[in-house]
Write a structure and sequence with these properties.
Radius of gyration: 18 Å
Number of domains: 2
Shape: globular
Structural class: alpha+beta
Largest sheet: 4 strands, mixed
Number of helices: 11
Helix content: 40-55%
Mean pLDDT: 89
Strand content: 15-25%
Distance between the termini: 15 Å
């Protein structure tokens, strides 16, 4: 762990090679897990305000979950998160490129993507997606004194990202550069670059 700009940063974020491989994982981080994506309070308000923009890209099940539970929920740890369809799938996710099983009504194959981000890519909303999703697999934790920690959330389903990252030589923080700048600013990213030089020179 190192401290950068008052934040405690796992050195794995700087040294670990990691490059998302959607062709292999199929966006499973939007489908599996024990809670929704962490949200900031202002993000919950934005999701409510811009619902009309991204609703057309949501699944019927996702719409039902949002309209039943709200645009955000409090999970078992007391954290604000996105609502879920059932016990795992984010209400704001949808499947692209899969085939419909008419017997069960389920979609098989394809890639799971974000309906909010789809609307953003089409210029229909100013909100890209929750920053926690944009930063994944970095998870931000808030300590009791109000300071922040940045941890690498290890998950077996990201094995393909580790392999592709090693193959291409891309450190995690560089793959997530846009998201890091969005959340913490350009100077913080530049500090990570300086830390990389220091750590690799040791």
């Amino acid at each position: 762990m190192i401290e950068i700009d008052g934040k405690i940063v796992s050195t794995d974020i700087i040294t670990q090679k990691f490059l998302c491989d959607l062709g292999r994982c199929k966006g499973i981080c939007c489908v599996e897990g024990n809670a929704g994506a962490p949200l900031e309070a202002d993000e919950a308000r934005i999701l409510a305000d811009q619902y009309a923009a991204y609703k057309p890209y949501m699944t019927a099940e996702g719409i039902e979950a949002v309209e039943r539970h709200g645009f955000s929920v409090i999970d078992s740890d007391g954290d604000l998160t996105t609502p879920l369809v059932g016990e795992a799938e984010c209400a704001y996710s949808y499947n692209e490129g899969g085939t419909l099983d008419h017997a069960t009504g389920a979609t098989k194959g394809g890639v799971t993507l974000c309906a909010v981000e789809r609307a953003w890519m089409k210029g229909e909303t100013t909100f890209r997606k929750p920053v926690s999703c944009h930063l994944y697999p970095i998870r931000v934790v808030r300590f009791g004194d109000g300071s922040l920690g940045l941890n690498y959330h290890r998950w077996a389903v990201c094995g393909g990202a580790l392999e592709l990252g090693r193959e291409k030589g891309v450190p995690m923080f560089r793959m997530l550069g846009e998201a890091i700048v969005r959340r913490f600013g350009e100077e913080f990213f530049e500090a990570l670059e300086a830390a990389e030089k220091y750590l690799t020179a040791k």
